[in-house]
Amino acid sequence: MKIRLTKFNIVIAALFLVLVAMVSLYVITRQTMDTPNILSESKTIELKPGATIRSLAKQLEQYDLVKCPKLLIFWTRLNGDAKRLQVGEYVINPGTTLSALLDDITSGRVRQYALQLLEGWTFKEFMQAIQDHEAISHELGDLTQQEVLQLLEISYDHPEGLFFPETYYIHKNTRDIDVLKRAHTYMKKHLHDLWEERDQGLPFESPYEALILASIVEKESAVEEERALIAGAFINRLRKNMRLQTDPTVIYGMGENYKGDIRFRDLRKDTPYNTYTRNGLPPTPIAMPSLGAIKAVMHPAKTDYLYFVAFSDNSGRHKFSSTLVEHNKAVDKYQRKK
C-alpha cells in the first residue's frame, strides 16, 4: 500500500512540475512578447517570398529584439501565427512589442511610402515622379504614352488630365501600372460625381470638355478662392464665342520649345493649343487638374467678368474686369506700371 502511494505521489509531483514548467514557460513567453523594445530609432525588416518564422526570428535577433528565438518560434507555432506571415516591409518603432509586430505582420500592415503627384503637373512629370520613386517596381519601361493608355484600357488618345493628383501611399514593389490605374480610377470617379452635380447651362458637351477647362483653370490659378472667378471668366468667353487667349495653353503647345518666356511671335504661331489663334477649347487637357479646379468649372462664379490680369506683387491674385477698356487699364496699372 505504501509503495502504491509513493508511486501516486511521484506521478502527482511529476504532473505538478510539468504544470509549473508550462505555466513558467507561458509567463516567460508572454513577458517576452509583451515587453516594449528599447530601440532608439525605428528599424525596418523585410519578409520576402518564402520567408519562415525562423528567418523572421533571425532578423529580429540581429536587432537584439529577441533574446531567445526559440521562444518566438514556439509561440507562433502554438497560436498559428507562423503560418500567417505576410510578405512585405515592416517598420519596428521604438517601444513596439513583439506581439504588436506579429499582429502587423500577420495582418499585412506593411510599411507605407508617400508618392506625391502634384496638381498642375503634366503626364510626363507624373511619370518622372513614378520612375524616380524608390518603392515602385518599374514595368512600363520604354512604352509610349499610347501604349500605356492601351495597357490601362483607356480609350483617349492623350494621357493628359486623366490621372488624379494626390499623395498616394504605397508599399514596396508596387507596380507603376497599378499606381496609374489607381490615379485614373480616382479621376474618373471625381469627374463623374462632379459632372452629375454640375450647374445647368454650362457650355460643355461632355465631362472631358469640363476636364480640359479645369486643367486651364489649374494652371491660371494660384489662389484657391479665385478658381471659381477664373472659371467663370473663361465660361463667359466661351458663351460669347470669344477666344480664351490663355498663356498656359500656348506654353503647352510649344512643348520643348518653351524656354521660360513667351514672345509675341509665340502667341501668333498657330498650334492646336494656341487659344490666341483658335476658338474654343484646346483638344485635350494641358495638365492634371485638382479637385478644386474641377469643382470651380462645374460651379463657376456667376459674374460678367471676361478678363483678368495678375497683380505684380507675386501674390498669385488677379484683377478681374468686365470690359476691354477696364482690362487695359488694369494691365497698365499692374503689369506695365503706368
Protein described:
It is a single chain. The chain is mostly helical. The chain folds into three domains: 33-111, Endolytic murein transglycosylase (Dna Ligase, domain 1), CATH 3.30.1490.480; 113-191, no CATH class; 203-334, no CATH class. The chain has helices at residues 2-34, 53-62, 69-79, 98-107, 123-132, 145-151, 176-196, 207-220, 227-239, 247-254, 264-268, 291-298, 324-334, and strands spanning 43-47, 88-92, 113-117, 136-137, 166-170, 174-175, 307-310, 318-321. The strands form four sheets. A two-stranded antiparallel sheet has the order 1-2. A two-stranded antiparallel sheet has the order 3-5. α8 (207-220) crosses α9 (227-239). The longest helix has 33 residues, at 2-34. The chain starts with a helix and ends with a helix.
Which terms summarize this structure?
338 residues; mainly alpha; Dna Ligase, domain 1; 3 domains; two-stranded antiparallel sheet; 8 strands
Shape: elongated
Quantity of strands, as a count: 8
Note poorly predicted spans.
none
What percent of residues adopt helix (DSSP H or I)?
40-55%
Number of helices: 13
Head-to-tail CA distance between termini = 122 Å
Give a brief rundown of this model.
The chain is mainly alpha-helical.
Secondary structure: elements and pairs:
Layout: H1 2-34, E1 43-47, H2 53-62, H3 69-79, E2 88-92, H4 98-107, E3 113-117, H5 123-132, E4 136-137, H6 145-151, E5 166-170, E6 174-175, H7 176-196, H8 207-220, H9 227-239, H10 247-254, H11 264-268, H12 291-298, E7 307-310, E8 318-321, H13 324-334
